[in-house]
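Hi there. Long-time user, first ticket. I'm pasting a complex I've been working with (about 432 residues overall). I'd like to know whether the download I got is complete or cut off, because the file seemed smaller than I expected. Thanks.
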Amino acid sequence: MTAMLELRGVSKVYGSGPTEVNALQDIDLSVDRGEMVAVMGPSGSGKSTLLTIAGSLEEATSGDVLVDGSELRAMSADDRARLRRRSIGYVFQDFNLLAGLTATENVALPLELDGYQSSVAHATGLEMLRTLGLADRASSFPDDLSGGERQRVAIARAMVGNRRLLLADEPSGALDSVNGEAVMRLLRDACKRGMAGVVVTHDAQLAAWADRVVFLRDGRMVDHTPPPPTPDSLLSGPEE
Amino acid sequence: MSVRHALLALLAEGPKFGLRLQQEFESRTGEVWPLNVGQVYTTLQRLERDGLVESDDEGGDGPQKDFRITAEGRRELTEWLQTPPDTDIPPRDELVIKVLVALRVPGVDVHPVIQAHRRHLVEVMQRYTRVKAEAAEHDLGLALVVDAELFRLEGVVRWLDAADARLGRLEASIDPVPVDLSGTPDRVSGRR
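Hi, the file is complete. Here it is re-exported in full:
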């Protein structure tokens, strides 16, 4: 099976000479469909840079990034923009919803930008809100929603259409623990339904929702947890 | 976890026999804490001796013998619920000791030691989170038990993160020269 996201020897350097910063060094990471991977590390460890490079918002200094088997470097800028619009969903800590648009309009926006007829985009957006239990908030503006509701709208926007790669940066950082858990449940469910997910966080409770956790330190991947165990060993203690 | 007080709490709802107490204890703690039936009977005997529960004498010692909480038992239970657990004396935490020792042993880089413990704790947290994710949403007992354990483990991970950050800051300011004697695999160094 082709991985949905693959980073091969990815490095990112900012600046040059005495001000040079190695934000990422030689990162290898592969994420399959149906899988959620958490990237954990302290501030400045390179987590957010990894996410922006995986989402083609920034280019790697060296190494290859493949989304669904296609190498980003080999694509034209237009093709990369289309990939971002159609295949990749982003969730940020501060929601990034447009205040002048209703919940449905926010969710429908990426589809409209991609040329969908407005009525189709809205119907699809509304359906996605319904899936996430937000049908009754569809006509509300972001300012009238709670923090937890806003983040669920942002997740709906990241999932709408036929998006396959879900990238989240501290997705529940601004929420209390119960709302944060609800957000992680939604992201986990989205991945179980076939998306590939990468969540970056410094929070171990959030990272624990992922199938695999990789640890970054000073731009290097230093460690990772093993893939999930088989269902019948879930309640057993650590292996001897 | 006091089995003694858990049994008193279950008996406060009404008379029950030993096997049922064992089953209810396990189901209400999300089956995270297994309890064997022998331990239930031993505890019941002690509670009876102390006058906190009473039983029907006619039933003999059979498995169907009903136990009831006494007025004294209810007083004991109420008092226990409001008594703070003993958190005044810091426990001799093995993990803290290991990190402190790692700092002193020549040739040992403390960062991989911290990371090994961090990874292990996150793995345990993943296991608990899967249990919570796959449980029915109305299973309040399980959610509360699992949350308690997750918050505790998260606290330990945060302590490791803080230790790591403090050490990193110190290393940046004094530039130490550790000697590598151990050949520790996957060394993680904060220095370049």
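A couple of notes from our side: Residues 19 and 124 of chain B are 31 Å apart (CA to CA). The longest helix of chain B spans residues 140-174.
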